[in-house]
Amino acid sequence: MSIETEASRERKSFLERERTMEVERAKEGQEHQEGREAAAMERADILVREVKNTKKQMQNILLHVQDVLQAIRALRGQLELAETAGDPMSIVRDKAHVASLKAKLSTYQKELRNMRGDLLREQKQLLREQNPVTMWTEAELNSRAERLVIQLLHEAIDEPRTDETGRLP
């Protein structure tokens, strides 16, 4: 944008110089042939300088455009590399940590399933101690203990439901 403002400033200064020259000529009031030829030569010199300046500005603008296009290509290349390079190291570490936690969880769940018989015996004992007055039959005691153990196992073993991204709802 600064190149455009520079070009407009140069055009304005060129027009101002021309006006100044015309005003000076008008003040003098002498319009003879020699004066006209000199003014024409002066004007030609000004136009030659303007042409050179304009060509130089165009070259600068084209170079600037090429630089910008190269920078854009480089940025696109960098972004493409960043996208295809894979996950950042922290994400890789987090995924590995999650995998190890899942393995531990699986081990704990298997252990709980294997302890089911022991849990049933412990639950029956707890029910007897908590309700010494209540006289349950062995079937009722087994049924209540079974429900409590199943509830405990479901809470411990069943994985919470997650959405596609692995987040809890």
Which key phrases capture this entry?
169 residues; mainly alpha; 2 domains; 5 helices; disordered C terminus
What does this molecule look like?
Residues 98-125 form a coiled coil. Residues 1-38 are annotated as: Disordered. Keywords: Coiled coil. This protein has 169 residues and is mainly alpha-helical. It has 2 domains: 2-84; 89-157, no CATH class. Helices cover 83% and strands 0% of the residues. It has helices spanning 2-28, 33-84, 89-114, 116-130, 138-157. Helix 4 (116-130) packs across helix 5 (138-157). The radius of gyration is 45 Å and the shape is rod-shaped. The model is unreliable at 160-169 (pLDDT under 50).
Strand content: under 5%
Unreliable spans: 160-169
- Shape, principal axes of CA atoms: rod-shaped
Number of helices: 5
How many domains? 2
Can you write the helix and strand succession as a string? HHHHH
How many angstroms does the end-to-end distance come to? 51 Å
| Spatial extent as radius of gyration | 45 Å
Query: What oligomeric state do the depicted chains represent?
Result: single chain
Structural class: mainly alpha
How much helix, percentage-wise, in residues?
Answer: over 70%
**Sheet with the most strands, sense and barrel status:** none
The averaged pLDDT comes out at: 69
DSSP summary, beta strand count: 0
